[in-house]
Records
---
Amino acid sequence: MSEHIVSSYEGQLKTLHSTVLKMGALCENQFSNSIIALVKKDEELVDKVIGKDERIDELEKKIDDQVVNLITLRQPMAIDLRETVSAMRIAAELERIGDLAKNIAKRVKHVKVDLNNGNFSLIKSASDLVQGNLKKTLDSYSKNDEKLALSVWSSDKEVDVIINKLLEDLLNHMKNEKKNIESLTHLLFIAKNIERIGDHSTNICEYVHFLIKGEDIKGDRPKG
């Protein structure tokens, strides 16, 4: 293989990696904005989050096309094949995170309770934890950092614990605040969406580990 072809191929791999990170940054921003919109009841921000979801789908399609081009035209070696396949899998997880962020935003208009009330502080705590994990997840991919990926994967239990407490609190509120039943029902779905974003983040960490080590993480994911 000529030096020119090798250089071109490496350039395409870097472009693929860059596109995944661009998609990840957009998903991270979408999730953050959906929570800000929820807490501040910012309907203009809600519309912005919903409107940007199409861009996430476009980036996933772009990544798929880049992967197909690399595999069919370049016939990558094993390590490069891991890079391409992992990128496609990570993009699929990011697309689901984008969808979940949009779903949170869509429910904002139906939540009438004041989330700055201390009774609902766990929603912010849960979203802060998951947002932090998502950022670490993307950093682990950006830096090829296996230890960082494992740290997020291992912390999934913490997310489960806080989400379970949040769900318990919301159900108790539903028993005692019949007039807010619609808002609280939407908050239940939002809590589950936050939890699922955490799950997709840990899925990405598993792909990062596979990309770096060439094998799956041993053992079961810690659950709370």
Note: The helical segments are 3-40, 43-74, 78-107, 121-143, 146-154, 156-176, 181-213.
---
Amino acid sequence: MNRRGFSAVELLIVIVIIGVVAMISFPKIRSALDKTSVRSARVSIGTFAAEARAAAAQRGCKAVLHFAGGAASQAWVTACPRLKPGAGTVDTVAMIDNVGVRFSTTMTYTRDSVQYDPRGLSMDNASTVVRFTGDVAGNTDSLVINTLGRVVR
């Protein structure tokens, strides 16, 4: 007896097995992707802090890392202009980054900005804690900018 192909029952069994495996693995994949997004948001803000320190030291003036919360959590860096110094003028050194939208996270912080002096040291007397929360419950991470202006995990 020559058989070509598969019977409908065999195909149905394979489809059911694939469905069960997918139902078990999709929540774990979603949680892993959310955890990666939270970690990426933390790394992004750490990069902004390093950029603010570098801008302050390179330009020889105050640089500020700003935070804005809410649904579209944002961060950006400003510093004095390189070519036209003057009162009330600042350059946006690092782009305004919509961290909340880009990484699907919520950002909360203890201070709305971190200021760096021309030596690249923090002008604040307290540490700043930035917390990130993902869409999946339990996916959180945090970043601490200490009193010297260094990023500590």
Note: Strands lie at 63-68, 74-79, 91-98, 106-109, 113-116, 128-133, 140-145, 151-152.
